[in-house]
Design goal:
The protein is α/β, with parallel strands linked by helices. The protein has helices at residues 20-28, 47-52, 61-67, 79-82, 101-110, 131-148, 178-190, 201-211, 222-231, 252-255, 306-327, 329-334, 336-341, 352-358, 365-369; strands at residues 2-5, 32-36, 56-58, 70-72, 90-93, 113-116, 170-174, 193-198, 215-219, 234-237, 263-266, 287-290, 293-296, 342-345, 348-349. The chain contains 15 helices and 15 strands.
Length: 372
């Protein structure tokens, strides 16, 4: 198969769909890999690095799209990219379609087969291609919160770890999954006072076993969240409903009770955000204020640490990508986890959560694939 890797064009996105090491694996499987010139610049991978492992370097993204049977990216395709996709192509990348009707429409009109990293599953019911970026985003969320809390950045002027004689900052983490766990780990490491909310009692018990007395676990109710947010210096939104839009758990009304200069970091912004006042931002302008509360809502947080993120992502996506390249659409028919990853095929939405969020008709993956 001819596999294409265009340079990412989303604002301040420095990751790359395939690292040189991954390209070598595709080439070893007999595939031709086209890489847009300078696609790996954000991770310090040169065109020579890609050539040395067998890639063919093309000058433009248009050439990559035109020559390739499968496109491997990191972030969702931008409007200029939708128009270059074809009905005989597989797109393999993060999509986050539930809060993005415009992108969904673009993919439907292209007729392409779109497999979303964030809904591919594994035998344990996990989301193995989302997990590494969730780990990065969770850890990064605390770094970002700590920076935003600094007075010159509009924050309260609180040091999360405190110092002897001065209380540490209070961090509230909403969601006890991968993002929340890694956020808590980082916040504890800095010496902050950490409270984690979740609606799964078994998960709260697990977190209690993991962290012991280093955290406080609380069952998530409106009343409990309202109380905790009021006292927080930083709130991390780490809620995930696979494939679906995130619920709005912190309301505009709650903001008015918070401490001025407190920080909200919405890691769920890719799925529409879990704060009522959230709107996607970029690394160029990561924060804004609402009612005196600093909001950090960067939609591609892991892109800030592109080297770490690209390698972590490739470690997870490679095996499924190789299956798609080796077997084409048959790989999806043969693998239920890739069926779960299929979001759009030949103009049909094939993921239930996406269809429900966008109020569209859903066609089961195997039925949709009968058209191919």
């Amino acid at each position: 198969m001819r596999v294409g890797v265009p340079k990412e064009i989303k604002n301040n996105e420095f990751r790359v769909g395939l690292t040189p090491g991954s390209v070598r694996e595709y080439v070893a499987h007999g595939h031709t890999v086209y890489v847009e010139t300078n696609a790996g610049a954000g991770i310090n991978a040169t065109d020579k690095d890609y050539k040395d492992v067998g890639a063919k370097i093309l000058k433009t993204a248009a050439e990559v799209f035109a020559k390739s049977d499968m496109i491997v990216k990191v972030k969702e395709p931008q409007p200029v990219e939708w128009k270059q996709l074809r009905s005989d192509q597989i797109l393999y990348t993060y999509l986050h379609l539930a809060p993005d009707p415009a992108q969904t429409k673009g993919l439907i009109e292209s007729g392409c087969t779109a497999v979303a990293y964030e809904t591919v599953t594994d035998d344990r019911g996990g989301l193995p291609l989302l997990a590494p970026m969730s780990e990065v985003a969770g850890r990064l969320s605390i770094q970002c919160a700590a920076t935003a809390l600094q007075k010159p950045n509009g924050g309260r002027g609180v040091l999360l770890g405190g110092v002897p004689g001065v209380a540490p900052g209070k961090v509230v983490v909403i969601g006890g999954g991968v993002v929340g766990t890694h956020a808590a780990q980082m916040a504890i490491g800095l010496g902050a006072q950490v409270t984690i909310f979740d609606r799964s009692l078994p998960r709260l018990r697990q977190l209690d076993d993991i962290f012991g007395s280093s955290i406080v676990t609380r069952y998530s109710t409106v009343d409990a969240l309202d109380e905790a947010v009021r006292e927080a210096d930083a709130v991390i939104g780490a809620v995930l409903i696979p494939g679906a839009a995130a619920p709005k758990l912190v309301t505009r009304k709650m903001l008015k009770t918070m401490k001025k200069g407190a920080v909200l970091v919405d890691v769920a912004i890719d799925q529409g955000g879990c704060f009522e006042t959230s709107k996607a931002t970029t690394h160029a302008e990561p924060t804004y204020e609402v009612d005196g509360i600093v909001h950090y809502c960067v939609a591609n947080m892991p892109g800030a640490v592109a080297l770490t993120s690209s390698h972590a992502l490739n470690n997870a996506t490679l095996q499924y990508g190789i299956q798609l390249a080796d077997k084409g659409l048959q790989a999806i028919r043969d693998n239920v986890h890739l069926q779960n990853g299929l979001n759009v095929h030949r103009g049909m939405i094939t993921n239930e959560a996406v269809a429900k969020a966008l109020k569209k008709k859903m066609v089961a993956p195997l039925k949709a694939l009968e058209t191919a």
